[in-house]
């Protein structure tokens, strides 16, 4: 072939005289650009993040493109001839985000400004037009490259027609199609007809996956031959489905087959490449405020005079030689050596290189894990795999201190490094440049560190976070720390922190680490982060996690950063009074425990307690551990308490008070910022398997809600003068998700009409008139309503209700008999987990279930319970995250000064000016209830008070 796409160049390069048409999938570029960048607006307020990303991608492509003909192909409308064949085609696809809609026209203007032909036709999808132009151009003797990674276009691959993945920069030919579908390109539509496509609502045949479909097509040749030979298929369910859904498969084939006879609305010769008109292009870019693109392309005033342009060109050429394009395999380039930047001119060169790269790895090195107290010690940049540097800023002489305590030794000079203020002033424009994407691992920490005034006061944006990219796709499958991701995806073990700082009492602060060791460790972090981005970012779309990451997880970074910085006020005097009361009550309990035991002993010692209970008192049911000591955990004591042993109940009460005192009274006092009187929790974003946030240092999510002690502790959390605390709590959100996912008419009716859900359940399963439901019946119904979400067994229900296992089984049977959809949903979730290894929330988040395939029945039963519960916890987590993402902007647009402070499971806590309570409550309820559309309405309960306890 005269035209080639090489792994190195990864762009079409035509030999002189060769006719080569490049067709760019415009819709793919638009949505990729929109989701790749955070919200951006031009001076008049028009959103332009997708326009900016599109211009960057198009300008980069044009700089490398060497074809003779070029066109960007767009979708003209949502409705096409396929909707006439099948009205439900793409019916459940959401409308484009409202911030994207005004950008469609601007993107077409951008295409025109770049001098590139654009093609679209009402009634046809862009894919059909690509098929038609590819056919016509190939028949005229030319060659075609389709710039897209869309699997639906792979049916077009053949000699003279190939695809180019714009993210991986890799060609897609027959071998890649076979790897994807298991069949050659000409058989792709046969496989797609069988498997369908849930994204586009193409039905296919139930229970026929890609592997099975490929086997059938390879065995019989095409769809019709498969349907004609179903009698030969041995698997009964497969045979039955193929016969039952034969017409559905034929319909699906019509839907997935691209129409290569679609009209050529622009003559082929009009697609000939032409250079852009500089003045028009410069004006368009200037109107959008894209100064960095103007400068990069050498247009307009931003490029400066001829001498400046020449100098910039020389610098660019040198940088291009020094910073190779990311390889197809990011793990192939060696890790290091890396550069230590200690001179202003070296820093300037790295900053220029970073601007040219457009995407950089970024990391910070500090002297503390607490982002709100840490001193910035150094900054790391990576511009390409293997190409990274470390910029030391506050290093001291090696060995000058241990831990976080730095002691300057006059006889030892600090190592050479840039002046802190000078370096941060140089880095600030780069790190705030909207045209350079900063890729971080656990971005929230670095954003908090860099955002503090004493560390430079830098508002880093836009960002990507490799931890959250991984978490969005594989929550529950593995950890998402950098070292684990590096081993998993790059087959590389990074330099351990302990190796450069030491361990235990001998550990030194990172600021005292010699620069050569600090560079090897720190620059590698930025390098690994950028490599992980190259590997993981392209997978978001194919794993169905792109919208989740872009619209929820990434946007949560800034929301949580602001919440953590804000903190919540604590009344130290009230906390002290609570602590004194707890100590007094613990002393009384200790005396009572000693009396029941017959002698004094250390109540907090599990070993001594076990000896009292099982050796001296001779109680049954004790179990010894490997150490030979009796087990006295909460489960053992609860069992003894249920048997009427008062000593066990007293010890449980003592332990509860002890835990509350150490965790919340002592813990909060230690965490209290003496300057502000507030505590600042750390929200962990990727620690749970369900998508829920976790709270640490201090943990504010596990304060008991319904106990007197828990309420007392919540009374210590107060509002600033002139403000109140507002609690906004989703009402019974997991049960609402159950009614939605299982589609239970009775539960839907109860929620829609505002009935008490537990009373309604009691009336249904116990066959009672509504007025005959008493407190005990409601209690039983409430226990099973919540327990069923956690896969509760008859044994578990019996223990909760204090009844026999037989009676409990009867209640569960009655529950499922009344609500068969719930049992069906539970079985469906377990089957989904067994087949795929994960279950999905109503919003598409995959939650991976460990041990679902194990042979150990106990572990497998636990995994099945997790599979049942995960979509409800995960769905609830997603709903409240969506609310958190939208609330700050909604409050700002409404001119309200309320601030988000805490998220505790299904509850948000805000601090609100007294005069804005009514307006804020109405807006909060409107936003929270409107973030998702379920088969049942969402409901939010709002309360206010001077303290958290009063508000809840």
From TrEMBL:
Residues 318-334 have a biased composition (Low complexity). Keywords: DNA damage, DNA repair, DNA replication, DNA-binding, DNA-directed DNA polymerase, Exonuclease, Hydrolase, Nuclease, Nucleotidyltransferase, Transferase. Transmembrane segments: none annotated. The keyword Cell membrane does not apply. Signal peptide: none annotated. It is an enzyme of class 2 (transferase). Residues 19-274 form the 5'-3' exonuclease domain. Its EC number is 2.7.7.7. Residues 710-916 form the DNA-directed DNA polymerase family A palm domain. Residues 318-338 are annotated as: Disordered. It catalyses: DNA(n) + a 2'-deoxyribonucleoside 5'-triphosphate = DNA(n+1) + diphosphate. Residues 338-541 form the 3'-5' exonuclease domain. In addition to polymerase activity, this DNA polymerase exhibits 3'-5' and 5'-3' exonuclease activity. NCBIfam families: pola, PRK05755.1. This is DNA polymerase I. It comes from Belnapia arida. The gene is polA.
């Amino acid at each position: 072939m005269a035209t080639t796409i090489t792994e190195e160049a990864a762009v079409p390069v035509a030999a002189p005289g060769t006719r080569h048409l490049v067709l760019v999938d415009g819709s793919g570029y638009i949505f990729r650009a929109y989701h790749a960048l955070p919200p951006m607006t031009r001076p008049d307020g028009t959103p332009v993040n997708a326009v900016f990303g599109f211009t960057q991608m198009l300008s980069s492509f044009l700089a490398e493109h060497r074809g003779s003909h070029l066109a960007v192909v767009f979708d003209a409308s949502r409705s096409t001839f396929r909707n006439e064949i099948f009205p439900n085609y793409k019916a459940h696809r959401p409308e484009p985000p409202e911030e994207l809609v005004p950008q469609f026209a601007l993107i077409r203007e951008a295409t025109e400004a770049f001098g590139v032909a654009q093609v679209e036709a009402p009634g046809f999808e862009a894919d059909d037009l690509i098929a038609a132009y590819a056919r016509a151009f190939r028949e005229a003797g030319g060659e075609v490259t389709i710039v897209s990674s869309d699997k639906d276009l792979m049916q077009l691959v053949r000699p003279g027609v190939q695809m180019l993945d714009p993210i991986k920069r890799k060609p897609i030919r027959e071998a890649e199609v076979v790897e994807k579908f298991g069949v050659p390109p000409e058989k792709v539509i046969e496989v797609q007809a069988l498997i369908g496509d849930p994204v586009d609502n193409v039905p296919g045949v139930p229970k026929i996956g890609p592997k099975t479909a490929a086997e059938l097509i390879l065995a019989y040749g095409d769809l019709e031959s498969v349907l004609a030979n179903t009698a030969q298929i041995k698997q009964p369910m497969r045979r039955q489905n193929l016969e039952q859904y034969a017409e559905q498969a034929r319909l699906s084939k019509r839907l997935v087959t691209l129409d290569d006879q679609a009209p050529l609305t622009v003559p082929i010769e009009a697609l000939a490449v032409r250079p852009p008109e500089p003045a028009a292009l410069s004006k368009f870019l200037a109107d959008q405020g894209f100064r960095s693109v103007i400068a990069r392309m050498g247009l307009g005033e931003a490029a400066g005079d001829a001498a400046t342009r020449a100098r910039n060109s020389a610098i660019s050429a040198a940088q291009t030689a020094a910073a190779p394009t990311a390889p197809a395999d990011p793990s192939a380039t060696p890790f290091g050596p890396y550069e230590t930047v200690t001179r202003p001119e070296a820093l300037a060169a790295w900053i220029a290189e970073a601007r040219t790269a457009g995407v950089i790895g970024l990391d910070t090195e500090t002297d503390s894990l607490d982002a709100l107290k840490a001193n910035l010690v150094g900054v790391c940049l990576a511009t390409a795999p293997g190409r990274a540097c470390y910029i030391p800023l506050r290093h001291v002489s090696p060995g000058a201190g241990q831990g976080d305590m730095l002691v300057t030794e006059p006889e030892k000079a600090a190592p050479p490094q840039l002046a802190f203020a000078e370096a941060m002033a140089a880095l600030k424009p780069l790190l705030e440049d909207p045209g350079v994407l900063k890729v971080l691992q656990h971005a929230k920490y670095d954003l908090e560190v860099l955002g503090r005034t004493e560390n430079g006061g830098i508002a880093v944006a836009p960002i990507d976070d490799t931890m959250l990219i991984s978490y969005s796709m594989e929550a529950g499958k593995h950890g998402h720390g950098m070292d684990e991701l590096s081993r998993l995806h790059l087959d590389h073990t990074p330099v351990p922190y302990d190796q450069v700082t030491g361990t235990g009492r001998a550990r030194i602060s990172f600021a005292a680490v010699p620069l050569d060791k600090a560079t090897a460790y720190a620059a590698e972090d930025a390098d690994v982060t950028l490599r992980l981005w190259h590997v993981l970012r392209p997978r978001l779309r194919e794993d169905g996690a792109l919208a989740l990451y872009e619209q929820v997880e990434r946007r949560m970074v800034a929301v949580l950063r602001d919440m953590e910085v804000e903190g919540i006020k604590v009344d130290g005097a009230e906390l002290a009074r609570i602590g004194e009361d707890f100590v007094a009550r613990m002393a009384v309990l200790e005396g009572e425990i000693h009396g029941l035991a017959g002698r004094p002993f250390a109540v907090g010692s599990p070993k001594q307690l076990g000896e009292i209970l099982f050796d001296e008192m001779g109680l049954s049911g004790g179990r010894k551990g490997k150490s030979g000591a009796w087990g006295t955990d909460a489960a053992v004591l609860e069992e003894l308490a249920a048997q009427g042993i008062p000593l066990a109940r007293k010890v449980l009460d003592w332990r509860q008070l002890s835990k509350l005192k150490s965790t919340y009274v002592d813990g909060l006092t230690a965490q209290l910022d003496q300057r502000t009187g507030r505590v600042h929790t750390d929200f962990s974003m990727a620690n749970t398997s369900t998508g829920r946030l976790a709270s640490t240092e201090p943990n504010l999510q596990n304060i008991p809600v319904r106990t007197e002690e828990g309420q007392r502790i919540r009374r210590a959390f107060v509002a600033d003068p002139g403000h109140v605390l507002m609690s906004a709590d989703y009402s019974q959100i997991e049960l609402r998700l159950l009614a939605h996912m299982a589609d239970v008419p009775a539960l839907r009716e109860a929620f829609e009409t505002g009935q008490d859900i537990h009373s309604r359940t009691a009336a249904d399963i116990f066959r009672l008139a509504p007025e005959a439901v008493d407190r005990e019946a409601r209690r039983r119904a409430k226990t099973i309503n919540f327990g069923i979400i956690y896969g509760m067994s008859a044994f578990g229900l019996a223990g909760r209700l204090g009844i026999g296992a037989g009676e409990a089984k009867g209640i569960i049977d009655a529950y499922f008999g009344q609500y068969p959809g719930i049992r069906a949903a539970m079985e469906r979730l377990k089957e989904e987990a067994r087949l795929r290894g994960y279950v999905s929330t109503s919003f598409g988040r995959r939650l991976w279930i460990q041990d679902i395939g194990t042979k150990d029945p106990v572990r497998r039963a636990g995994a099945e319970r997790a599979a049942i519960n995960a979509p409800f916890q995960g769905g609830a987590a997603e709903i409240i995250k969506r609310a958190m993402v939208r609330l700050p902007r909604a409050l700002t647009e409404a001119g309200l000064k309320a601030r988000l402070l805490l998220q505790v499971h299904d509850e948000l806590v805000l601090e609100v000016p007294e005069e804005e309570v009514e307006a804020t409550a109405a807006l909060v309820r409107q936003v929270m209830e409107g973030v998702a559309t379920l088969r049942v309405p969402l409901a939010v309960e709002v309360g206010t008070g001077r303290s958290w306890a009063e508000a809840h």
